[in-house]
Design goal:
Layout: E1 3-5, E2 17-27, E3 31-35, H1 38-46, E4 62-66, E5 85-91, E6 95-97, E7 100-106, H2 108-116, E8 136-142
Length: 147
């Protein structure tokens, strides 16, 4: 998995977007994620000031495509995407809201896959915490259960 800056002029937001790749993996209970490079999330977690207590997420770095137990995908299309490499864009700005630090992420291929599975392009589980942005997200850290 690698990450790089988008080519200038490739997108109106190219000045604030980077790209990376990840592998699609099915999870227990009919979930689907994009595995995200541990180095990417470790780097952004290192930018959180030590004066702001936080912890690593419970799960390895990923982008949720289908949330197990919440989204109900069309099972006749299930399993076709295992192992596929996808390229996604992400902002370098680290957001914080509702106990979570995250990066916004975009990927047209993930929207296509959700649609092929009979799901809406986004869901409350794929949107960033707080739901203010219409994109996917990569959780970097959280403050849950920290006094």
């Amino acid at each position: 998995m690698s990450h790089k800056h988008l080519e200038e002029g490739a997108d109106p937001s190219a000045a604030t977007m980077f790209t990376s790749t990840g592998r699609l993996r099915h999870t227990e209970g009919a979930g689907l994620i994009v595995e995200v490079c541990q180095g990417l999330t470790s780097y952004y977690r290192s930018t959180i000031p030590a004066s702001m207590p936080h912890q690593k997420p419970r799960w390895p770095p990923h982008i949720t495509v289908v949330r197990a137990g919440k989204d109900k995908p069309a099972l006749e299309q299930w399993g076709h995407h295992e192992g596929e490499i996808v390229t996604f864009g992400y902002e370098h700005y680290l957001y914080f809201e509702n106990n979570y630090y995250w990066l916004n992420a975009w990927c047209d291929r993930l929207v296509e896959i959700r649609t092929a599975l009979g799901l809406p392009p986004k869901s409350r589980w794929t949107l960033p915490p707080g739901g203010g942005h219409q994109c996917f997200h990569i959780t970097i850290a959280n403050t849950k259960f920290i006094p």
